[in-house]
Design a protein that fits this description.
Elements: H1 3-22, E1 42-48, E2 51-57, E3 70-77, E4 85-93, E5 100-105, E6 113-120, E7 123-124, E8 128-131, E9 139-145, H2 157-163, E10 168-171, H3 198-208, H4 212-220, E11 223-225, H5 247-264, E12 282-286, E13 290-294, E14 316-317, H6 333-344, E15 350-354, E16 368-369, H7 377-387, E17 395-399, E18 405-410, E19 421-425, H8 436-439, H9 442-445, E20 449-453, E21 458-465, E22 468-476, E23 486-495, E24 498-503
Parallel strand pairs: 9-10, 10-11, 13-15, 15-17, 17-19
Antiparallel strand pairs: 1-2, 2-5, 3-4, 3-6, 6-7, 6-8, 9-21, 12-13, 14-16, 18-19, 18-20, 21-22, 22-23, 23-24
Length: 505
Amino acid sequence: MSLLTRRAVMAASTGLFLARATATQGLEIRRAAPAEPFAMGVASGDPSTDGFVLWTRLSAGGASLDAPAVPVAYEVAEDEAFHRIVRHGRRAATPTLGHSVHVELSGLRPGRPYWYRFHALGAVSPVGRTATAPEHAERARIAVSSCQHFELGWFSAYRDMVAAQPDLIVQLGDYIYENSYAQFPKVRRFDAPEPTDLDGYRRRHATYKSDHDLREAHRLAPWIVTWDDHEVENDYADLANLKGLDPQVFARRRAAAYQAYFEHLPVRPSLWARPGEPRLYRRLAWGDLLSLPVLDGRQYRSPQACNPPGQSGNRARRDCPGLSAPGRTMLGAAQEAWLDRTLKAERGRWTLLAQQTVVAPIETPDGVMSDQWDGYAAARDRLMRSMTRPSVRNAVVLSGDIHAYMVNDLRIGRADAAPVATELVTTCLAASHAPPARYGDVRARNDHVRFADIERSGYTLIEATSRKLDIDLRAVSDQADPKGVAQSLARCVIEDQRPGAQFTV
């Protein structure tokens, strides 16, 4: 990235930095209480052994709040009735951060549930439930979701997810969609055109928070989140974009989208401490059972191969030399180095690598898709070398993006080599699906694809123990039905130190 472009990114992000500083200053007087200041709900995320982050955003019944800084009190208790309050304090909800509040807590007891609530403008928020990570774990239940388009489907899969009582919900990106699709029938409508500035992205996130099932999933379980492309614009790559806009122009849009993302999700403020460099890649753990490195495959990547300069786009490619160019990167040099160091020091029994796009090579009738790791073959080789370090006992990649279920063997070298890891691709929670012609008979073309379904929406549920992972691919009966139910589509098992899935149904 050029010096001029870096300055543009820094300038576009200065508002977020100043807003964060403002939030630590004195609290201004409150204004008249709006209706439903906690209409967007509450959330928690990124649990550690001694804490987590709490989130809410004040609004006027879901619309932006017209007020100066508002004092917000929080309470954290060891019981749902709040008889044993163990933390309390105040934060300022400032207009420069959209009246959002992030509370990053530490010093709590490991491996136990906590309940929390907020107070502001004479109102009390819904009570949220969260938990600290244990120091040692015998089992864990993880729900994995991706790709939720508000117009194209109801989020009823979250009801099934909540009923499963997961310890963690991992969201792999496309939490919002910036765009509408005229060719598909709608179950509900966006209330504004495609966002390009901070106000627009705030409105889009607020629209998503109007979904009851989504709010309940946030309220009742801690989340681990990362973004993909639709949080900004479809298929963007660093500052390359679909319209080929000047990088400085697109930098302003991207910075606005990033700020709105921060304002609406339980992301640790300490990850966003440097202006112009919001960071989402980090490692979490659930005791000694699960290690969860979380990647950012959008902010630092090279543009997709064989596109015009400055222009992004996912295309089926064949005979494109850029696909295997050694200097191309999906993660950027700093994140690649961080991941390699992290995996070199790995100590969890299961390493669940949470990231956005399909890692396994997928041959389609027209070639490989340039937005997936197929478009970054040298970077994929580096990733695979890191994942197969001796310290990594069991490597499992969690992927999303393509609106399809897949279970893939990940191999190094020959096509008939033994798998060294397993990839679990979760489908869209609610969105459109690719036409069958895009993939053709995907299993016939790719013998390392053990299971594939490109027609259903839903999520993936993982039950982890020291001996195995039980995986349940749970599909919704009809995403156009607000009362749709989820049932098991397929089940498989990954056994300790035996890469590759064993199917049970």
